[in-house]
């Protein structure tokens, strides 16, 4: 192949990061020029990792991850997708056995500069972003994004009369092809270089103060390459940097800019990346709006619109939406027509999206949101071979993920675990250990099946940032088990609140950390002995109760925990009544929630702790709380309800207590608080009023008697109470109140009398008539068939 004529000097290929048009143009330019070396914008410490890009197991999107050895949380990413010009240039160089190097500022300096900026009160703390929508290094999550620079692409688009920079870029670069290749391999780069030169003349550094240092380092590396290979060198960098790289400066001037730069020890590796993380809405400084769409444009050589519409149709069909071939044909025609009407060379993302909404989604944005999420943004997660460098903890995690068949996925998914199975139990231990290490791969979720202790539900989603979290956790140990054990022990020693230690004990049990439990137990015993605050004790007890409950499932010795839990429960029973007096509204509401937690915990502890008669002592405490006028109304009402639900309070007594709480002498706000405690925020609170019209009548009569001047004060509290009920319960209550007492029925029921709406007693004849029907439905015998016919007549006649 004859090498194309080219200007004297290095070939500067200014690109837009993550642009398929730029990627195709770079590939065409490299094929035409056949340079002797390729230089890429990126950290030079990554040169040793470049050969891995030729590995077939390396599948983009991937990213170079650099982190400080002494502070792994200080990290930055250099993402690359299949359609990134840098990735295309790297693969071209490796395929053609051409030397390829990174020439940007070393990560050791850029990370140190970011660290120093974060420590300054007015430091920007951001990463190096170039002006073409790209970034030299994306700061790790949690770092300050820095000051917003200008967007050169936006400026050029506005100058050209476009209101959308993405659409301008598509028209000028992405669609500037003929037969799938650029018309002139160097034309896009010459045009962009000229435009960027004009912009830099006007805007200077464009809000990128570090660019002068970065570009000085790149010029020095370019001089070295030219000295080694001659002018036959190609440079792939953000178009914003091209004018600076073409500027003639002295070596001494460039070195002067680099003098005194901070530096730290950094390590680099390849990590998988995702299309979702490439999206602009994820917060990525070099983000693009449509990585999935750009990936499609890069991969598809011909008829991209037709193939895109086919892909969309397949997605919608998978979601049980009717989309035929005719829909695909009409959507393509509409997209092309819209492009012609808007004066665009080819249909772009806006035209295809409008066509999909109109033809396939029937004008609705609901299915279109699915298309945006699954295809336009995309769910692709890259892969990196095992030979890539990694911290020991990451290698252990990867090994366990494979052994347990828990593949990291960018798409969020639900995982149901049965702890009676060895594999599921091991998965649970791994996820709980990662939570202790603050590696947020999985979060507990509410399961759809059984609520028993042998079931667990998780919501899993792997994000590239988790590699940074794993690197940070690597300071605690080389394996997940050792790291989680070490961190749990450290947290137990440093914890200051009793509830923190009890929660930690629960997590250690769930994660099965036997070596950490003794340390946690010593800290728990020390905190429990010194803490006299009943509120703190009440916060701590539920976690201990759950821990003891899970100990049975996971075959863990929890005898020591049982003794501590019994001691806490006893102290709560003694100290709670005095603590419930003299409270304001907020304090009473908070303590009411703690009473709920203690009640549930004591129910779990009964029979599992050394203390005898614990439930009886707790019931006595609730009786005291329900009867004392000095206790806040919301706590008195809640105590009454808990006793009634446990069968430790007769219905007549509950009605008497309600009558006292709602008597005319009680301030309306206190009465409303009692009602909230009794029927609000509790399971079945509304159904209790539905089935006991005596209690409903008391509430109704009280509400009707509230003076007008205080009604508006109690209304928000009542509305909050009753709005928590299901719609069907609220509707039934409304019908009962509107109907009033049933005709001929007593207004209230006493022992042995009928409730409103019911007969005076059981009609045994009608009840017996139902038996044959039930036997027939249950298939108990054939005799039910005869009796069923006879049974229907009296039922129809009387009911």
From TrEMBL:
Domain of life of the organism encoding this protein: Bacteria
Transmembrane regions: none
Ranges of biased composition (kind: Low complexity): 137-146
Region (Disordered) residue spans: 115-153
InterPro entries: DUF5682, LolB
UniProt-listed PANTHER family: OUTER MEMBRANE LOLAB LIPOPROTEIN INSERTION APPARATUS (PTHR30634), PTHR30634:SF14
The protein, known as: DUF5682 family protein
Taxonomic lineage: Bacteria, Bacillati, Actinomycetota, Actinomycetes, Kitasatosporales
